[in-house]
Amino acid sequence: MWLLCVVDALGANGIKTVMGTPTATPPIWLIKQHPEVAYLGSDGVRKNHGGRRHCCSNAPAYIDSSREIVTAMAREFAHDKNIVGWQIDNEIYSWDGCCCEFCVNKFHRYLEEKYGTIEELNRAWNLNVFSQAYDSFGEIPPAVNAWHNPHIIYEWKVFHQLSNIEFINMQAEILKKYVSAPIGTDMMPFNGLDYEKTVENLDVVMFNHYNDENNLANAIFWFDYLRTLKNTPFWNTETQTSWNGSSSTGQVMKPEGFCRLNSWLPVILGGEANMYWLFRQHHAGHELLHGALLYPSGKPFHIFGEVQQTAFEFEKAAEFISDTRVQSDTALLFTSKNWNLFETQRILNDFSYCERLMNDFHKPLIESGIVPDVIGAKKELSEYRLIFAPYMMTLEDGGLQGRLEKWVRNGGVLVAGPMCDIRNALGAHYRDADTGMLEKLTGCTLDYSIPDSSVYIKSQWTDGTPFTGKMWHELYTSCDGAQELVSVTGGHSAVVGKAVVTKVKLGKGEIILLGSIPSEDDIKKLIGIAAADAGVIPFDISGSVIAVPRKGENYEGLILAEYKNQGGTCILPRAMTDVLTGDALSGKITLTPYEIRILQI
Amino acid sequence: MWLLCVVDALGANGIKTVMGTPTATPPIWLIKQHPEVAYLGSDGVRKNHGGRRHCCSNAPAYIDSSREIVTAMAREFAHDKNIVGWQIDNEIYSWDGCCCEFCVNKFHRYLEEKYGTIEELNRAWNLNVFSQAYDSFGEIPPAVNAWHNPHIIYEWKVFHQLSNIEFINMQAEILKKYVSAPIGTDMMPFNGLDYEKTVENLDVVMFNHYNDENNLANAIFWFDYLRTLKNTPFWNTETQTSWNGSSSTGQVMKPEGFCRLNSWLPVILGGEANMYWLFRQHHAGHELLHGALLYPSGKPFHIFGEVQQTAFEFEKAAEFISDTRVQSDTALLFTSKNWNLFETQRILNDFSYCERLMNDFHKPLIESGIVPDVIGAKKELSEYRLIFAPYMMTLEDGGLQGRLEKWVRNGGVLVAGPMCDIRNALGAHYRDADTGMLEKLTGCTLDYSIPDSSVYIKSQWTDGTPFTGKMWHELYTSCDGAQELVSVTGGHSAVVGKAVVTKVKLGKGEIILLGSIPSEDDIKKLIGIAAADAGVIPFDISGSVIAVPRKGENYEGLILAEYKNQGGTCILPRAMTDVLTGDALSGKITLTPYEIRILQI
Amino acid sequence: MWLLCVVDALGANGIKTVMGTPTATPPIWLIKQHPEVAYLGSDGVRKNHGGRRHCCSNAPAYIDSSREIVTAMAREFAHDKNIVGWQIDNEIYSWDGCCCEFCVNKFHRYLEEKYGTIEELNRAWNLNVFSQAYDSFGEIPPAVNAWHNPHIIYEWKVFHQLSNIEFINMQAEILKKYVSAPIGTDMMPFNGLDYEKTVENLDVVMFNHYNDENNLANAIFWFDYLRTLKNTPFWNTETQTSWNGSSSTGQVMKPEGFCRLNSWLPVILGGEANMYWLFRQHHAGHELLHGALLYPSGKPFHIFGEVQQTAFEFEKAAEFISDTRVQSDTALLFTSKNWNLFETQRILNDFSYCERLMNDFHKPLIESGIVPDVIGAKKELSEYRLIFAPYMMTLEDGGLQGRLEKWVRNGGVLVAGPMCDIRNALGAHYRDADTGMLEKLTGCTLDYSIPDSSVYIKSQWTDGTPFTGKMWHELYTSCDGAQELVSVTGGHSAVVGKAVVTKVKLGKGEIILLGSIPSEDDIKKLIGIAAADAGVIPFDISGSVIAVPRKGENYEGLILAEYKNQGGTCILPRAMTDVLTGDALSGKITLTPYEIRILQI
């Protein structure tokens, strides 16, 4: 009732609504009736009411109640024209994993379904070590309060992620019965969910991004990923106008133009819609210091003008943006399974999967003039010429082993490694070889896997310039016919002469084995080599400019944006017209800090 | 019995006793009989016997037992002439707040009494956000185990502080029935209690201070506060002779003269009495490394001579000290409510209320030659010409809004801000304006509140010299007739031209709105301006010297003390005589490190 | 059955077995039947199955089951010729101490047995402070969840260590009934057990060492200790070949030669046997990144060649090594009681007993050309000329007070201090003097014990060169006839003129009182003085070379080893022959990085 009034009032003032289901915040009366709705920590203490996600997605009472309220809301707003979308729950995740009996029992059923027999689980996890073997699934504890092996920690994590997806899908099914507006769930750039799996049954990818001026490049990584998850543009369900904060803030104001660029960036890279959290700062309760458009008093924030400008510009560029899609012939693999594996067995103590993927590969690609698609395990590969597969600890995901081989044989250039294909689907070592398929496909053997940051191991490119490998070295014996790009020159007598980077032809394509984390200069050199081999042509940029080619049925063009408040340049491949300003441009153009150019051919 | 023997034996040797009630350390047999006496943590585990304050001030069995032993002791020593004071409990505080049923139930009654109806509480705390609303007071959980909003955390904290005050008052009432010696409770410079409220029903302010040579300025802050709480001098119930420690110490020995100065400092600033913890180091058990006067073997510590000297000097100066009181016409506001608010909503992540108050305002005042009274919310204002009100997040405390307005209209100079008057009594934003009274009184509007350490926002004094604001900026539009002192010159086009510091006449007085945390130079410049406007005349000092004017019925004079072991000077306004040495002094005098001058006119 | 097959298969391939009892890892079915087998934390939560040592050594069901399986194994393999040793449990320790009822009840019985009456315990621990006294042993809580005094924390720690020794001895007794191969338990360089007491009823000292290239000097300390525990050589039951790691590693590869030196070092210093953990890396489960000899695929690690070389060399030097024992006339005291005391009362916050003993005394001795025996409290003293007793907080251990006095009177040179003899056996201060025996024996009084790192206290040698004392100063008044070596020249008027280091003759020997932690130069100077007085002749080395004299019935010689990968020299006292190379050597010889010389006279 009251909610309908709100939606009507907004609608009457020209504001459409994305309706959220309220399941992230169960009311206190429900927990009072059903204490088991509250999340149970490994210390035996349930989370108190007062925050968010203090509930258990596997508690029957919670599932039933959620079903009830979602049904009621779906019915109420089924044909409401002011509702333009549905958002299920909010930034769903499961802390360290609820340890209640429902969760633990369901965890047992999950393992039984996956492993079949307890003997198979014991074998797969190698539980003869340390007398760890179980006699039945029912004995397996939640993966807390012990120095657990990585496999049980991994499964406990995955199990809770899947439980949340099940919880989301339960809601999606109900909504689909009644409503026609697109359905999604708003996600965060944390490892809380398998993104690919989460959006399978949903209509639209929803994303909340809160990057600041120091890490907009990370936002680009995420947008490069989000646009590949569905064929429709992703939605920006939340971003801040100025600074993040709860009852206090650790950020400072942003430079002029940041708010506009931050709002434009997802749209440039394949998204649509742009909602600010908060619109008006709360006058009491939570998040009193979070940036917004309006103060509690109703006075505007200092960025109000930037928001207005952005809105006008969106309108101006709407036709071009709506018609066109981002074009890329280069991909960077990024999978939920690897993220979960790396969080349960880091290989190196201070290795952070997502951060390294961004810093060691995505940023150098961007800075080389290539905006890659960041793709999950199931994405169709045929549209790419060049694929990077670093830190793909396992390739046993989405049939990647066979699909990558086929794609290479058909002409693709694959840069594999470091830490690629070195574990099976459960995160265990292979026993017959050191890789799942790479040694077999390339004929090169992986001799040594050694933690070292070029402290001891010295290596160089075949042209004699030094190569700096960081943190980890995989050293190969190249097969006959391989073209060794980087070789070891010193360190330990046993490793001298081994290959760090080596290139092998396979069918119409090739595989470049990359055995270390290259320095910035070295990865850019390798990107150059691989792009040339693949026939990928980077844009000619300098400074912190991204160059995003877009093409549609009616329009074609290029969007340029400067994202570090420092300026840069781009040499246009042909003459274009700025959709916002009408400027006719060609040749080398200069972008001022945070400048955006929507260029149409 | 045994205790009487001890008191008698001490008395027979000329040593008077301040008798402490033993309620900080319940005996094990009481906890055995009544397990609910022990503090219950949020993890469901009770604190073990073996330390201090492991009890719950709300457990009926504990209250009853405490009542019993305090009554017995009060009767036993009611007229004992060797007892010169009573100390209730010891450094009372409540960890994170006991979560036992007595506490939680009483917390509900406390909230009900304060808010009346659950609807009013829901409204005041804005609990429509995140489905947080309660249906009854009985549902409200202790403010632990959740991402709680600041209001519930604040009330949980205040509730436990009030419970302890109730526990103290219970004891005070009993004592008052029997004894005549003054009653107090020894407090520490932590946010464990509301000092003003705690001492309301007590006779004397008691304080334990353990500052070291690096932060004696903080001790000065506390003494400047303590003397304003009661009309009688505060007592120094504990200080160390040399170093602090438990079963180990993290401190080193202090420079020669420190022990004497540390003992003198509270007396100079308005206290009396001086007790050392420990007199003789424990031979076993707790605090084996804490500094003392004597080693367990009975041998003296190396500072023994300094203690003797101090005692002789106290005797010599007794008449002057006893007769005179510290004089100040400048005050700095410091309230328990603000401390609690800042601890439950910091506004800035690394903002520490008490520390910033000391560093940003109290120290610059001292170094400018002004020893201010540090005053709580209820202190009478009429005796002051100049009041600083920084970080007074709310002025809804002790009727400060109305009282400050009246005081300004009568001629006072108020320096208000930063972060002053921006929340209501519950810590919520105002909804109709951005301040409670300041905008209305001054006619200046607070346009923007922005976290920034002059990274982006640049500003300058009207004379053109730059002004450096730290961490936070409140930017005003000055009213007509206001005298703008500091204005924004750069940062974001929306903020250029706004005022950071602006001065407005009100009645016979004036309000200086201070919109940022000034650098050391800038606050000293502002102190100069405000003091001149208020007619406050600072002492002419250099170096780390405090100049403390004192006046009594029979005597008048000035006490000087050097507190950083570095030396300094003071230009005496007239000729004076040193009470300790008999030296006749006038003009500019030099103080050697840690030197003390008790000067009489 | 299956285990016999494994042992037989190994034996058939020439590999002998050290059989381990499996009690560090109880199977899940045992915990299911007897939940009390699992360790109970102070938060009331039991440790989950999945790691190691998640059991309680005091749970009757666990003791019974352990007894059963050890008996069965002992019977099965009683006369198996492939079994060359028995290892009980694995790296046994007790976390923070299990808090189950069995442990707590046994703790009470332990205290009752030690203290007799509760009154005596109250007195000894000084429990009149803070109303801590107990009325019965049954009331005493586990030493957790409170700000406990050091004595109860100490006893709680010792109690759990003793419980583990009891658990080990229970197994040893069973094994002795059946088997003839030597029995031990593998220990780690942590304060988990009293080493001296642990090996009393065992046949052989077993040790797992995992030092890296930066702290091989620490390994030397441990080997210097291990060889003194039994008359037979200790066993190296575990070391790594290359790097440590669990599911990830924080180490990098080691320099060439490290693996060989690390394998040789314990043998040089008095051990025998050398086992690697892991032989072949686990393919799944725990410790997937731990260094090994073989990868899961069976391929060799890059250090494989070093391991082979070491094995050949062991064979070559076997006769010399087996016949000879390390010779030393200098000892450094290192006791479990002191380690436990320092962990429960550090004296200085950042004082770490074992680390300081290594850095402040053992390393300077090694670098001075003296490889000392590191000895426990019960070791026979008569074979030494010179003993260092720093940080021996209490000498009430193994009758050390009387035995040291007698040994000095017979001609020994004792360097006592700092922090020596300043507590009784329970860790309490003495009450009649500041030391237990040193003041009485030397006639020098300990006036002041002061935390200070020569910030304030300045002192110098009698030759006028400055002396730098770290962290702590014990200042003495020398008796008549004492030879003061270092005196205080500044700091505080009360301490000037006191002695920091002073030398007193006693019978045929002497005591050097050392009142501070000397700088590296100062301790080396003092070592020179003490060695000269004692008639100890250091080897003439430079750089990071240890010179280890060995002597046996048939052979005599000197082993040199470079342990920092930097090189060094040694002047040979006479001509010798290298057992490995046959080189004839004399005079000054140079060692290359990690070089080892097994020299025979």
Describe the structure using short key phrases.
homotrimer, alpha/beta, 30 strands, 9-stranded mixed sheet, 601 residues, 6-stranded antiparallel sheet
Cα-atom radius of gyration of chain A = 26 Å
Task: Report helical residue fraction of chain A.
Answer: 25-40%
- Class per helix and strand makeup of chain A: alpha/beta
Strand line-up in the sheet with most strands of chain A: 12-10-13-14-21-20-19-16-17
The number of E-state strands of chain A comes to: 30
Please report the distance between the alpha carbons of the first and last residues of chain A: 51 Å
- Counting copies of identical and different chains, the oligomeric state is homotrimer
Q: Any idea what the shape of chain A is?
A: globular
Q: Quote the beta fraction of chain A.
A: 15-25%
The pLDDT mean of chain A sits at: 97
Largest interface by Cβ-Cβ < 8 Å: A-B, 48 and 60 residues
Largest sheet of chain A: 9 strands, mixed
